[in-house]
Amino acid sequence: MHYDNTMRPQILFPLYTPTQSLPGIGPRAKKIIAELAGETLISLCWRLPTGFINRSRRVKIADAEPGTLATLEVEVGAHKTPRPFGRQPYRVSCHDETGEMELVFFRAHADYLRRVLPPGKTRFISGTIQAYQERRQMAHPDYILTRQEYDEMPAFEPVYRVTAGITSRHYAKIARGALKSLPDLPEWLSADWMSEKKWPPWKEAVLKAHEPQDEEDLSPSSPARERLAYDEYLASQLALILTRQWMRRLPGRIFPKAAALREKAMSALPFALTSAQEAAIAEIDGDMGQPMRMLRLLQGDVGSGKTIVAFLAMLNAVEAGAQAAIMAPTEILARQHFKTLLPLCQKIGAPLTLLTARQSAAEKRRVLTDIQTGMARLVAGTHSLFQKHVAFRDLGLCVIDEQHRFGVHQRLTLSGKGRKSVDMLVMTATPIPRTLALAHYGDMDMSALREKPPGRRPVATRALPLERLDDVVEAVRRAASQGRRVYWICPLVGEEGEEGADAALALTAASDRHRHLSAILDCGAGLVHGRMAGDEKDRTLTAFQQGKIQLLVATSVIEVGVDVAEATVMVIEDAQRFGLAQLHQMRGRVGRGEKDSACLLLYRAPLGETARARLDIMRETEDGFRIAEEDLRLRGGGEILGTKQSGAVSFLLGDPAAQSDLFARAHDEAARILQEDPQLKSERGEALRLLLYLFGRDEAARTLRSG
Ligand code: ADP
Ligand code: MG
Questions:
Q1: Which ligand is nearest to the CA of 403?
Q2: Mutation choice for ligand 1 from 266, 271, 297, 562, CB with most ligand atoms inside 8 A
Q3: Domain of 316: which CATH number?
């Protein structure tokens, strides 16, 4: 087998053909499929059914239960054509020896119906039985088949989650087409492990996973599904280790702990470091002092004081003559870093530069020149800006804040860019339990700030049923009249940023609430939501930050990390619909200043068991690490990272939180494989390269020398 190490192996090409090459897919379906699954055949293969229909269940008309899916053998009777321009549907009556029923068609094509339903002939029809004025009917049958066609029809049909515009049946047909292109691939799993688990080979597993015939087949622990999940874990872990291997191969540099700048900074700080901060910076000093590249994740709850730790790390690079950058996911957060760090930088004489999209062309040119010549020693900016046209004279350390907004891949691309190897410090405000940290960050070194700076006041957290809305509004009015600032988070309807009805609904809910509150409160009220243009959103957030408005109504993603010390009230509407981690993140927006803060969780009764448990935990604790563990326990892991919203790597087929043993096994196996065959050159290694490409880990595969 030949591999060009910049290219996907040829044997996988069929899987990467565009979906439009499939039979039965027009431009409209193509667009819907692209949104649901993706653009190429493989995306359809990875999207497994969520159920199945057993079409072999044949019944007589008299026994057909309304609401069930049934297949019937009938004789076609009279066609009743509706009057032109009327609203009546087209009806075709049918019967068997037990009774009569009607097939109903709205906006029907009479020619077509006369062709497929000739009176007097036997037809097999399949679809959902309905009751209509004591009679049975079926609107738009899924299938109308001759006996011969019926004999060829699949007995079981997989059901896929679909959206408006496509039926599951149509989707299933398209998916079936995609599955035809599955190549036979050499086995990458060990034979022992396969036979121990009784797993099928890869191709068989994919096919089987798409043909569920009983509940067992749908379970994540079915052999087919489990194998595919394991494949995915193995690919992800191989990719993470490979990437790290590769990054470590780059020549490292030594940044000793800054002496002069560190001392100046410490005496300029109005507080002493907490012991958690001391420990974290000591670990970072240790990494930076080694001739190896630092790859460290700093976890710490909102407000745990990560910024200052990052700043001290940046000074190590700066004192050694290099540059250091801190990147935030949004413009407003980048400006916030700049504002926080500027006074410190001025006191200690280290020039800090801000790079943002909002600067004038001339200003930006000046900043870019400063970065290029090395005049700018510390740079704060947004992630997107750093990716484009920014050339550093000598970047030594890159700090990425609020990392869970970026995908791991993005991060790796970025860190691969530097001419010399750049130390990386990634900060996340979402504490992650160990299993998940492993899944998402692989072998990154980790530091955690588990202790908060002293003097934090607890946030009084209460849960109230929606019936108490008026009381809550009253409380908000009181808070506003005392000059406090209030966040009001609106119901989570769908995934934020997801195109479609859900996002539109979320927006409607937020703007309705905004209108309602603006009308009855006399403090200024602003609205931010996911579909707003970036600068409009920033303008509103800034107005809130500066106190020009006191109430901020928002859909569920108010900017993570926005620091408004004067904000002391957080109202979360429909709190039962949010995950714990999300609730915790949102509550973290308040309780930052000296005043007492409150968080009001408005819920819609009755509460389910899990929802109640979540709200209880929220009232009990503010410890993000504990909350993360509880979250994992209650709901599984996806939402801890807020994967959908963040674009962080999520798993297509597996759920590491629910399958932590399997996941840990894949991690160990990946490590063992690469220990024995670091370049994946053996026969099995070659097969594993295919696995990497299959799961889109092309970048990691490219770090390998060609086989
Ligand atoms: P986060 O971890 O969310 O990024 P920040 O770094 O923004 O947290 O810190 C939150 C606040 O805590 C800031 O106002 C910062 O000045 C303050 N802070 C940080 N460390 C300490 C400390 N050791 N003692 C007191 N206040 C601190
Ligand atoms: Mg922060």
A1: 2
A2: 271
A3: 3.40.50.300
Residues with CB under 5 Å of ion ligand 2 are 561
CB of 307 sitting under 6 A from ligand 1: yes
pLDDT band at 637 (very low <50, low <70, confident <90, very high): very low
Domain count within the chain = 4
* Same-domain pairing of 607 and 550: yes
Residues 278 and 384 in one domain: yes
Write the DSSP symbol of residue 456.
P
Indicate if the alpha-carbon torsion angle 193, 198, 201, 203 is positive or negative: negative
- The answer to whether residues 205 and 228 touch, using CB atoms and an 8 Å cutoff, is yes
| Count of other CB atoms within 10 angstroms of residue 573 | 23
Check whether residue 208 and residue 74 sit in a common domain. no
**Residue 368 and residue 486 in one domain:** no
What confidence score (pLDDT) does residue 559 get?
A: 54
H-helix or E-strand spanning residue 339 = helix 331-348
Q: Is 277 in the pocket of ligand 1 (CB under 6 A)?
A: yes
Residue 551 lies in a domain: yes
Token pair in block for residue 593:
């200043």
In angstroms, what is the span from residue 384 Cα to ligand 1's centroid?
A: 25
Ligand 1 site, residue 591, Cβ cutoff 6 A? no
Rounded Cα distance, 24 and 171, in Å: 9
Q: Are residues 196 and 127 in the same domain?
A: no
Say if residue 46 is in the same domain as residue 141. Answer: no
Cis peptide preceding 343, ω within 30 of 0: no
Ligand 1: does its nearest atom lie under 6 Å from the Cβ of 593?
Answer: no
Q: How far apart are CA 405 and CA 382, in angstroms?
A: 12
Distance CA(108)–CA(90), nearest Å, equals 6
Range of the domain at 62: 56-153
| Rg value, the chain, Cα | 30
Burial of 666 (0-12, 13-18, 19+ CB in 10 A): buried
Assigned token pair, 230 = 């394991």
- How do residues 254-303 score in pLDDT, each as one tens digit? 999 999 999 999 999 999 999 999 999 999 999 999 888 888 889 888 78
Determine, yes or no, domain membership for 253.
Answer: no
User: Is the model more confident about 656 or about 326?
Assistant: 326
| The residue to which tokens 């049958």 are assigned | 141
Q: Distance, CA 311 to ligand 1 centroid (Å)?
A: 12
The answer to whether 631 and 201 have CB atoms below 8 angstroms apart is: no
Same domain flag for 566 and 606: yes
Q: How far is CA 29 from CA 140, 162, 306, 625, in A?
A: 19, 11, 47, 44
> Is 189 a pocket residue for ligand 1 (Cβ < 6 Å)?
no
Contact (CB, 8 A) for 399 and 386: no
pLDDT at 350: 92
Same domain, 292 and 337: yes
Q: Which residues lie below 8 Å from residue 578, measured CB to CB, with a gap of 6+? A: 492, 556, 572, 586
**Where a domain ends, among 153, 172, 200?**
153
Q: Among the listed ranges 464-473, 542-551, 636-645, 651-660, which one has the minimum average pLDDT value? A: 636-645
Look up tokens 């588990």; give the residue: 450
Q: Whose CA is nearest to atom 27 of ligand 1?
A: 453
Residue 425 lies in a domain: yes
Segment of 166-175, 435-444, 612-621 carrying the highest mean pLDDT: 612-621
Nearest CA to ligand 1 atom 15: 305
Cβ–Cβ < 8 Å for 166, 31: no
